[in-house]
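TA notes. Do not distribute before section.
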Amino acid sequence: MKVPPRLQSLVEEGLIDTVVRQLMSGKEAMVYVVRCGDETRCAKIYKEANNRSFRQAVDYTENRKVKNSRQARAMAKGTKFGRESQEAAWQSAEVDALYRLAAAGVRVPQPFNFADGVLLMELVTDAHGDAAPRLNDVSFTAAQARQHHATLIGEVVRMLCAGVVHGDLSEFNILLAHSGEQGSEDFPVIIDLPQAVDAAGNNHAQRMLLRDVANLRDFFGQFAPELQKTQFGPEIWSLYQSGLLGIDTPLRGRYERTPGTVDLGSVMREIDDARDEDAARRLRMAQA
């Protein structure tokens, strides 16, 4: 196929040999299957801010650090250079998160290179060598749902122990990959991390983690209804705040609030619902 303009420089530099096809177009990026020597990889092209539909980006970029003090000042002032620096920080956040999480043992795609706003990384595949499906494209038995849910709760814990909250985790950004070994079980791989936040430095981290875990519960609860009654999110965050969370910490899926404790998750959900209702009301008024 014709080489997209954003990939042309990588072809000229020899980082990409051939662009095979477009794999997907999402809210913050477009992904292409490419050939690099003898290997098939994927190239993720980040969309510019004015073309991105990712909602509430300010929640994700809060307290996101840059090493250059000039960039930090410009970002704070909102200058053109500051906006460009903020955009670069947004794009490089996924690369940083991928390396950080891979080192922590989280199953994420292996990154290979990042240049000109394009991330070259592993193409996660199924048993036939094709691009692995997202969870939302797969049906599960109750036993499979319980197994994958338990695996992903463990991955959320590993991420949190590494200081990272995904921030947008759902069945739409988890792939079901194959290990390549005959008879082995498929396993989930977490993708799409430019919105990942620092667990300790972002005021929205708790709300995002609770939402991530709730998304897993709701999806797998379709196949194993007993999962709908679990409360892993509040349990995990409570252990994390208390300094008691480790990758091997046993979880029960239950959470009992102490008297006087505010259920922040419920409060934030009510705020989100009110915000959505107000936005819908304003839209109706504008269309009237």
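Switch to the second chain here.
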Amino acid sequence: MQIATLTLCRFDGWADRVWAFAQMGLARGPLRRAPGLRFFKLLGSGAGSGFAPVPNTAVWAILAVWDDADAARRGLSGGVFARWHARADECAHLTLSTLSARGAWSGVAPFQPGATADDGPIVALTRATIRARALPRFWRRVPHLDDLIGDNGDVLMKVGVGEVPWLHQITVSVWPDAASMARFARVPGPHADAIRAVREGGWFAEELYARFRILDASGIWQGRPLRDALT
């Protein structure tokens, strides 16, 4: 079964941050040659929780899609991932199987649904390429929506990352179950209004929505074991 992984790393020293920034270009070749790696994206983040137009030079991420669990285990233990882990002040990994996916990312559909839902946590990923004409309206809404997610007691974790600042945005949130995620998505209010504005205004040139089951959570994030943060 196809496996997706999200690796988050924090680099405190300025020399390490410059190194991580350079990895956005230098790591592409080795990742393209990694056995069993079918799709990957090297990602930066925004200030605060990540949902901000101001870059955060400390936090960087790799999203990867692997042929199977064995390929993911081998990949995360060596190569680019091992170098990031050795250099970073903290790193964490989410290992995921896809429950559902619709839309495209760089013209392809990278996630193949195959997992069976259970009663465990659900990871929601939203990715969009924002049209230039919609940038002011999009970013005016983001701080309020960020607060809404952050103030929601059901949210176990949230991360904002992106490929190109302001234009290509990815949000990842972890919910205790599908029901709590659905309640947030469907309740009338600013979130529903923003979704309606996106649809009616055609703000996105490309978009993708995916839901995942967590197979494993490892490493340290924000000073504590990631596994503990998600329970």
